[in-house]
Amino acid sequence: MPEPRRLARRMPWWLAALLAGAAVLWLAGRLAEQSELARIRQAGGHRLEVYVGSLRNAVDKYAYLPYVLSINDDVAGLLARPQDAARRERVNRYLETVNRSARSSALYLLDAHGEAIAASNWNTPQSYVGNNYAFRPYYQDARAGRPGRFYGVGATTRQPGYFLSQPVFDARGVAGVVVAKVSLDALETSWQRAGDRVLVADRAGIAFLSAVPAWKLRSLAPVAAPALDYIRQTSQYDRRSFSPLGLVELSALDADARVVALPEGRGRSAWLAQTVALDDHGWRVLLLSDLAPLRQTVRNALVATGFGLIALWLLLLYWRQRRRRIRDNLAAGEALRRAHDELERKVAERTRDLIDSNRALEREVAERKRTETELRAAQDELVQAAKLAVLGQMAAGVTHELNQPLAAMRTLADNAVTLLDRGRPEQARGNLGMIAGLVERMGRITGQLRAFARKRSADRPAVAVPVAQALANARLLLEDRFARRRVALQLTLADPGVAVLGDQVRLEQVLINLLRNALDAVAEIAAPRIEVRVDTLGERVRIEVCDNGPGIAAEALGRLFEPFFTTKDGEGLGLGLAISLSILRDCQGRLSAANRAEGGACFTIELPAAPAG
Predict the structure, then answer these.
(1) How many CB atoms lie within 10 A of CB 490?
(2) Please, which residues have CB within 8 angstroms of residue 188's CB and are 6 or more apart in sequence?
(3) Residue among 450, 414, 460 nearest 434 (CA)
(4) How far apart (Å, rounded) are the C-alpha atoms in residues 451 and 513?
(5) What pLDDT digit, counting tens, does each position of 559-602 carry?
(6) 8-state DSSP, 71
(7) What's the pLDDT band for 1 if we cut at 50, 70, 90?
(8) Of 149, 202, 227, 229, which residue is the least packed, with the fewest Cβ within 10 Å?
(9) CA trace torsion 492, 496, 499, 505 (10° rounding)
(10) C-alpha–C-alpha distance, residues 387 and 576, integer Å
(11) In b/e form, how buried is each residue of 554-563, taking b as 16+ CB within 10 angstroms?
């Protein structure tokens, strides 16, 4: 049968298979989407119940407080005789004591005209006494003979809170109002630590509590004019306009759940919005759950289903091919026998080619090993050059360190000669002893310089290096810079005897590079400070070199360890950190950098700990 006619006969079967596969993929994605959405919704519902419960607990646990205060005899007596100074003082102190015990924000007493005549903060600069709060809804509700509730910003303190009021009755009716103000900041802080995106909105749709600080006092929808008038009349919030949060409804699942889009960065992300209405307060609690897991689940389901369809197709193809192979094998026996000789010839040729390729590969491996040896030698030369450059920069400080003992030795020697001439050998011996001490100190300085400048052998094995000794040697070489710049160095060793596997001279070079960088970072700081901490973490030792400088710029943080990259405005070659990283990698160590939360930068070294003994 000609090829075009055979393809035409097979085309409907291929189209039917493609349509069936597409239908299976759609059904799998739909089922996965519904299942994951139900799981996210159920989990969000549980979390939302917890948030609603914590909100009700934070609000309702103080509901008893205004009523208890309203039945106090001194409170009723002060309303009857507001000019009684002694009773006023008793009520003030009583409110202060109850407020401290109940841990509320404030307690105060209003007369029938809404003027505060006693308060728990009576003796503070922000005392409520003398202020009139008749415009507040909680006063108006209590004045009408019923308990009042109101959330808003304090008219005196400008601090937000939840106000609970209770009328105080006498024989003629409502004589005054007791008010308790409760702060919900602790509740809001606990929500922020939980990491969910949850908020509480009032009747006007304004979010007055939120786990996301940027959402606070923003509206879920444009605020109506009557609601804005109410906010202005009651001074509920400290602003007159409220920018919308920008939630866009994509689909509604039911009355309490819908899928919304939230503007974030340069795009929008999809979230599941679940709400619970608190009708007794006129509030709505809204929880947003990220739908990124849903999209990932759908992708996984589609991939798994696709692989399953591919496997099924391959299985069918294998079955078909097997049948064809059996048929072809029967006809190919003779052809295989004829091709045997040709195959042996090709195998021989291929074997010769493989032998030639193997020899070429061996030559390439040898060339790469030679190149690696040359690169390592060049790296060692670069390390040595960097060390000599550091020595050159420290020359002035070392000269200063040597000039002082030399001058002292000259003076002591002259004094010793004079003392010997005067027949006072004991005092001359003391001068000679001090000269010997100065010579020993100069020997330590020059010895450290010789050890630091010494070139490391490429095949030198790793040894146990005491970290405290390496830090002491590095500090000795930089002592003059610490003194001249008046930089405080704080050294903390969890174990003074801790040692690492490596090379002492190279470890000292890394420490000197990091300390010099830290000294440069705090050059413009009023109270410069460098901290070095050494901790043991199992089989690893961590050394941290931190400063209180300006920190590392975000754009430079990812390039610090690139060769020839520097942040010192033309000073230095930008090789110090790259060489330090290479040295530590040779010792199976690591080097990383980060900014500290309290300010400044911190470089962390991790090296294998030396075995005990």
Answers:
(1) 10
(2) 209, 210, 211
(3) 414
(4) 16
(5) 888 877 777 765 666 677 888 888 888 888 999 999 999 989 99
(6) T
(7) very low
(8) 229
(9) 70
(10) 9
(11) eeeeeebbee
Name the phi and psi angles at 367, rounded to 5.
-65, -40
- Beta bridge partner(s), residue 269: 262
Tokens standing for 294?
A: 């849903």
Size of the chain, expressed as the number of residues it contains: 613
The 10 Å Cβ neighbour count of residue 353 is 10
Minimum mean pLDDT range among 172-181, 327-336, 599-608? 327-336
| pTM for the full predicted model | 0.49
148 Ramachandran zone, left/alpha/beta (phi>0; psi -120 to 50): beta
CB 161 within 8 A of CB 85: no
Q: Are strands 148-153 and 207-210 parallel, antiparallel or unpaired?
A: unpaired
Structure tokens belonging to residue 356: 């030639």
Contacts of 62 by beta carbon, 8 Å cutoff, 6+ apart? 102, 104, 162, 164, 180, 182
Q: Contact 132/113 with Cβ under 8 angstroms?
A: yes
322's tokens: 């097997």
pLDDT at 523: 87
Q: Residue 115: phi, psi to the nearest 5?
A: -95, 135
The C-alpha angle with vertex 310 and arms to 307 and 314, in degrees rounded to 5, equals: 135
E-strand stretches of 36-85: none
pLDDT one-digit tens code per residue, 340-370: 777 778 887 888 888 888 888 888 888 888 8
Summarize the confidence of residues 387-408 as an average pLDDT.
56
Q: Torsion angle of alpha carbons 363, 365, 366, 367, nearest 10°?
A: 90
* List of domains in the chain: 64-182 (3.30.450.20), 457-608 (3.30.565.10)
- Neighbour count for residue 592 (Cβ, 10 Å): 12
